[in-house]
Each structure stands twice: as structure tokens, then as C-alpha cells.
Amino acid sequence: MSAARSGRLVAASLAAVLFAAMPAVSGAPAASAATQTRADVLPSLEPNLISYYDFEHPVPGNPAQESDQGLSGTPVNLVNAGAQMRVADGAYPASGHSLQTMQVNPTVNGNDDWKAGIYSASGVPSLHAFNHMQQATVMVWVKQTGTNPNLNSNTANPSDYYNAFGIAGVLSGNSDGHTVRFLIEVEEVSGALHLVALGRRIDTGSSQVFAANQDWHTLLPQGQWVFLAATFDFNSGKMALYRNGQPVSGFYATPGDPWGLSSPGPHYTSATDPAGIKIGGSFPQNTLERNPCNCRFDSIMFLNRAVQPGEVRGQYDRALNAP
Fold first, then answer.
1. How many CB atoms sit inside 10 A of residue 50's CB?
2. CA angle, 190 as apex, 185 and 192 as ends, to 5°?
3. How many domains does the chain fold into?
4. Is the pLDDT of residue 186 over 70?
5. 285-309: per-residue pLDDT in tens?
6. Distance between CA 62 and CA 40 in Å, rounded?
7. pLDDT at position 10, please?
């Protein structure tokens, strides 16, 4: 047997072992022998990788949409600039392109900001894996390419700036295009901006915020690719943030019991399909501008389980070393 073939068999066997060892998670896709192993994706993530956007796969015949390389097959729209938003700047060696988002006219009350996502007021059926679930993860490469946060284009006040800028998240079932089930962003907490993970268990309930202690400028320096991850356990109430594969210390910003976990469990999110996905700003249906991000994004992953710390580090290392 050739060394190359032997190596492929070992890799396939390892992926199968990792898959078999995965704990059962409510809402997880059924096991499939067809689960693929990709050079830039950690094999243990594949069974729960619901949506994955690497911005290397325009929808055939419609380059203003990006194909989902995850299990759900949910395309996202590249809003307001279409294929022009797909730029030749990969976050890691094996990546060729990323997504550019930006605020276009800060002083104009309009709908021309570059952002991405998908929206349906009645829910997006292909995102059903995020319906009535206990855990979730979002992982994303991001690079700031301009000022953030930005001038509020919805008012004429020249000193009115948004109190946040959006990175990536999955919308709640009753969302108007802004409210989320889980996301990563930079937002104001107790009068100061922080990198945060924000999760909402019940559509009509309150959100919990886990905010990083470290200054957000240090965590997201201008012009530098950074790998971020956030995990959410809606059953236990635990959340976590990671930067370049390492845990980020932080604090829970919402007092009390915003997820309503005091009652007997197990606890799940609302039994509703998410209204969509938003990337680089709110309202992916393009009806309003809010929290635009002058940023580039690459390899955005949404999973329906909370990945382990070693997997976050493993995914970071795998991306950097993918052939």
C-alpha cells in the first residue's frame, strides 16, 4: 500500500472514531456515512456544522449569494454589492477570498450598507437544527478594515454613534432582523464597548451577555485577521469566548436569571426556526441600517452544539496549517 493511501485511511479512520465518540445533542443532525472531511475543518465539528460560509462558493448563476458548505444548505445574500463583496483576501493560507462589509453613507438615512445574511419573518426552515436546541457555537475569522463602531445613519445628529457593531449571529424565531438567538459582536456594556457573546434562550425573553475583560481594540486590532469563537449552553447557562484558539476571560453582564433556568430542566431554546442569519450588521432583509461593521469575514461556522476548548484550538490550528 502506498504511503499516501495509508495516510488517507488513517485520516478517515480517525474521523470515524471522532464522529462515533460525539455526544448526542438535541437537534443534532442524524449520523451519516456521507459526512465529509475537509482540509480546513476539524473532523469532530462536521456532524454539527449546520452552516459554513467560506466565500469561495458563489451560488451557481447568482454570484450575489454564497452557498452554504454546512449541513443545512442555507445560502446567504451579499446585500447591496453582491459579488463585489467577495474580495481576494483570505484569513489563512488555504483561503482565497473573504467577505467585505461596510458602512457606505454615514450621513444618509438609507439602506446601502454592505452586509450579508438571510431573513424570513416566518422562520427559515433549513435552519431547523437551531430550533429547540440546548447548545450552539459560532466561529469566525474577522479583520477590521475601517472605523468601528460607526455613525448612526438613522439620525441627523453628527455625534450619534451606534453602540455596537455586528459580527455574526443566528436570529431568534420572532426576530425583526436584529434580535438574535446567539451571536458574536462588539457592544456597549456598562458604558464601555466590549467583545461579547450574546445569547437568548426564549424568543420573548431576555438575553444574556458574556463580555470580554480585555480591551476590544487589543482583541480586534485594525488590519489583522483574528479567529473568534463563542459557545452557548442554554441548558446550564454557561457561555465562553475564544480568540485565536485561546479562552478569553470575561463576565456575565445581565443580572438575575435572563434565560429562565431556575425552573426544572432540561432547558431548550424556543421551538421556532430562526428568522435567519446576519453578518456584518443587522436587518439582512435590507429594511433598516444598524450596527454596520467595516470588516472582512472568512470561514463563518454555525454549529448546534457547544464545541470544546480543545476543538476551538484544533480548528484554529487546522485552518493555519490546511494545505
1. 27
2. 60
3. 1
4. yes
5. 999 999 999 999 999 999 999 999 9
6. 25
7. 34
| Residue 102: φ, ψ to 5° | -170, 160
Give me the residue label for grid cell 487589543: 218
Q: How far apart are CA 192 and CA 157, in angstroms?
A: 20
Residue with cell 468601528: 148
Could you identify the residue written with the cell 424565531? 173
pTM for the whole thing?
A: 0.89
Give the residue among 42, 47, 53, 48 at the shortest CA–CA distance from 314.
42
Strand partners, 144: 222, 295
Instruction: Specify the pairing of strand 49-53 against strand 295-303.
Output: antiparallel
Mention every residue, 6+ apart, whose C-beta is less than 8 A from residue 162.
Answer: 149, 150, 151, 152, 290, 291, 292
- For residue 286, is it left (φ>0), alpha (ψ between -120 and 50) or beta? left
Which range of residues forms the domain containing residue 158? 3-321
CA distances from 252 to 140, 210, 212, 300 (A): 22, 5, 9, 24
Bridge-based pairing state of the strands 115-119 and 276-279: antiparallel
CA atoms of 127 and 119, how far apart (whole Å)? 11
Give the model confidence (pLDDT) of 159-170 as tens digits: 999 999 999 999
Taking CA atoms, 151 is separated from 194, 258, 295, in Å, by: 18, 30, 15
- Identify the CATH number of the domain in which residue 257 sits: 2.60.120.200
* C-beta neighbour count of 24 within 10 angstroms: 7
Cell 465539528 locates to 45
| Matching residue, cell 469566525 | 140
